[in-house]
Design brief:
Shape: globular
Low-confidence stretches: none
CATH architecture of the largest domain: 3-Layer(aba) Sandwich
CATH superfamily of the largest domain: Type I PLP-dependent aspartate aminotransferase-like (Major domain)
Radius of gyration: 20 Å
Order of helices and strands: HEHEHHEHEHEHHEEHHHEEHEEH
Strand content: 15-25%
Number of domains: 2
Number of helices: 13
CATH class of the largest domain: Alpha Beta
Largest sheet: 7 strands, mixed
Strand order of the largest sheet: 1-7-6-5-4-2-3
Structural class: alpha/beta
Number of strands: 11
Helix content: 40-55%
Amino acid sequence: MAEAEVGDDVLDGDPTVGRLESRVAAMLGKERALFFPSGTMANQTGIWVHTSPGTEVLLDANAHIINWEMAGAAALSGVQVRPITPGEGRLVCSAADLERSLRPASIHAPVASLVCVENTHNGAGGAVTSLDELRAFRAVAVANALPVHMDGARLWNASVATGTPLADFGGCADTVMLSFSKGLGCPVGAILVGDESAIRRAHMIRKRLGGGMRQSGILAAAALHALDAHLARLADDHANARAFAEEVQGAGGARVVTPDTNIVMVDLPGGVTSSAVVGAAREQGVLLSPWHVSRVRAVTHLDVEGDAVRAAGRLVRSVIERLLAA
């Protein structure tokens, strides 16, 4: 980062940012890419690119865009979100769920303008939506003249976990957002990819949102390093997540959602709250997130090796059992 070749990305372009954008666009099979300071800004730009105020966006009821982006779709793009509830027994909505949720044309109902998908799915514990399912989503959207935006913050993980090329995933959406600051370990950064016209519009929206950066090559250099050094090793995080899940499964009756990638959701036994588990684990050096009152979330990453992950799992098991006994 300290040695990055830089320019002024607002005025005439930063060369390191340009290299990153070209590289990721090619990886996703898209014409262009645009570097952003955050995934939320890139997601919200993707929504703004495709929609107009007073329309609605269809997406999974547990999507990050609905639950963790401060109602940005309404505040910034003036659109209504239409949550799709997954069918019985499913963690993530399917193409059939999408088709069922489309409204019949009516002068009394808002017009749909966009379909969003999330892969991997944060709220479902890092679940991967398969290429076949994404293609089915795309087919339903195309049949209804709807563009698709993919929240692919962790699409890197989906690709490594399944062996699916990123370009195949990219072919299922008009725009895709990917994050550098999660599994790849960068301090800052996300990117939006799409065709020439979409990214040209996205550039104007990014400027409006205050996302223009100057010598941003110092950040892009970190992302380029991560693609070289950290992408393939995401498989280690997935293995560590499975190891953590094995240690915690059944603790006092706790149930673990089997991880597809690097996120582990733990459903706690009755009488034990997420806030109590998170607080007790923090006191002993293990950081978890409360997902809701009876679920905690753990995420594996490149800073924690396998032995430490197993030790953390054993500690969380002991915390749950001790709280249950108390």
